[in-house]
Fold this sequence. Notes:
35% of the residues lie in helices and 28% in strands. It is an alpha/beta fold. It folds into two domains: 1-83 and 160-228, P-loop containing nucleotide triphosphate hydrolases (Rossmann fold); 94-159. The strands form two sheets. Strands 6-7-8-3-9-10 form a six-stranded mixed beta sheet, sandwiched between helices. A hairpin with a 4-residue loop joins strand 1 (4-14) and strand 2. Helix 3 (99-109) crosses helix 4 and helix 3 packs parallel to helix 6 (144-157). The chain starts with a strand and ends in a 5-residue tail after the last strand. The structure holds adenosine-5'-diphosphate and magnesium ion.
Amino acid sequence: xxxxxxxxxxxxxxxxxxxVHAVKDFNYDFKPGSFYAIVGKSGSGKTTLLSLLxxxxxxxxxxxxxxxxxxxxxxxxxxxxxxxxxxxxxxNLFPQLTAQENVMYPLRLQKxxxxxxxxRAQEALAQVGLSPTQWCRYPSHLSxxxxxxxxxxxxxxxxxxxxxxxxxxxxxxxxxxxSITDLLLRLAHEQxxxxxxxxxxxxxxxxxxxVLELRDGRLLQQEQAHEE
Length: 228
Ligand code: ADP
Ligand code: MG
């Protein structure tokens, strides 16, 4: 069964003088346990599509549904808080909070008590390969790759089913790109999460279970990548 279903989704930006049709008639069923790569040239609609899937934008036409509920009907803040976490190129951590506090933050919003939140944060940070000394560091004292691990740990701690990432390795070197990709693949394949990554990096797309190529807002083709 689809975890996230896009049905005839179109989205237009309405400017003063022109309308930009950023996503056109997009249909797709995203399943749990799979790693999807969304590729395409700059301006092809990748970020807009990810925003639609995350409920950050609502379709102009068509619908995006999570387990049968459409983003138009649901409370999208709660959807992202509990089910669909978004990871960005620039990590988006709170600079004034330590790594562990950053991971605990959304749990506290979910009203998880402090002790349990701390425990779940530590488990998640350990899972992404960070050591206890790094848990207490502020983002400015962590490398880019480490900061992205903290951002991923935050999605693990809230146990969300869907991870959406826009160029998550865009600010990382080759080695960190590989290890973050390894991690995201493991989350899909070993923990049955639905991982959807926008990337222009062919080495990441080559490892995906499915590659969705956008051209001018339209889904062009789906290549089946090799089996992992
Ligand atoms: P990508 O992520 O593939 O580079 P985007 O989804 O950011 O593509 O953009 C798709 C199209 O929508 C582009 O033509 C872009 O200029 C346009 N666009 C993106 N954001 C806005 C906006 N806020 N207002 C108007 N047009 C936008
Ligand atoms: Mg983009």
